[in-house]
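Lab manual, section 2.4: Encoding a predicted structure.

Procedure: take the sequence of the chain (304 residues), apply the prediction step described in section 2.3, and record the output as C-alpha cells. A sample record is shown.
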Amino acid sequence: MSFAHPWVLLALILPAALVVWESARRGFVVRVPVDYGSPRPGLWRGRVLLAANLLPTVVLATAVVILAGPRRLGPPKGERVLTNIEICLDVSGSMSSPLGSGQSRYEAAMEAIQRFTDRRRGDAFGLTIFGGEVVKWVPLTKDVSAIQHATPFLDPMSLPPHLGSTRIGHALEYCGEVLAAQPDGDRFIILVSDGFSSDLGGERAMQIGNELASRSIVCYMINVGGAAPSQMYEVVGPTGGQVFSANDPAGLAAIFDHINTMQPVRIDQRAPEPVDFFTPAALAGLAALGLHAVCLFGLRYTPW
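Recorded output:
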C-alpha cells in the first residue's frame, strides 16, 4: 500500500501522544453505580474503560490515514491499439453488374463492408469511393454509422459520369496520403474493385506499392466478379498484403473475415496503476465511532 500524500501521516503523532497520555494519566474518577456492586472492580474493568476512552483516538487516526490518500495497485489494464482502415471502393459502372445471387457487385461489396466494420468496432474507418476521380465519402472515424448507411447513396447507376472509369492507382495514392497523416495506430487499405485499372501500367503499380510500404501501409485488394489482374499483385506485393477474388456475396464475406484474422485487434498491456483504497480505513473509523457511541450509554466518561 502507498499514499498519495505521505507527509500527512506525520499527524499520527497526535493520536499516538493521546494514547500515551490516556494510558498514563491519573486523576479523579467519576463513580457510577456499577462501581458499588463489587468491593474490587478488578483489572479487566479498568482495561475496558481504557479501551472505551481510546476509541475517539482511533477515529482520529483513521481520519489522518484517509487524508493521506491510501492507494493500492489496481489490476493490469489492456488498451486496444487503434487500427486505421481505409476502405477504397470502386463505384464505376461495371460494379452494377449482377452476381449469381442476383445482387450487384456493388451491393454485395457494401454488405460485406458493413459486416466487417460492425465486427471491428473500436477501429477507425474511412470510406473513399473512386472511378475516374476520387471522393472522400467518410473521413477516418470510429463512428461507422455513415458507412453503414451509405449503400443507397453510392449506387454506381446514380453517380456522376466522371466516376465511370477505373483509376485504382489514383485512389491508392489518395488513401495513402490520408493514412500517412495519422500519427498513431496501424494502417491498412482494403480496395474493392472489379476491373483493370487505366493508371497502373508499366512500373506504376510497383511504384505505388513501394510508396505504401515506405509508409507502413498494408494493402489488401479484392477483385469482384472474376480473376484479379496481374497489376493488383504488383501493387500489393511490397506492402505485405494479399490479393483476393470473389464471385458471390458469401465469398466476399469470407474474404473480409480472413482479413480480420490477418489483422487481428492488438491489445497493449499496461502496468498496473495505483488506485484509491479507502475501504479498510473507513470501515475501521466507522466501527470505532459506532462502538464509542455505544460506550457512551453505559461506560464512564471522565471529562478531565
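Check your result against the sample. The two ends are 38 Å apart (CA to CA).
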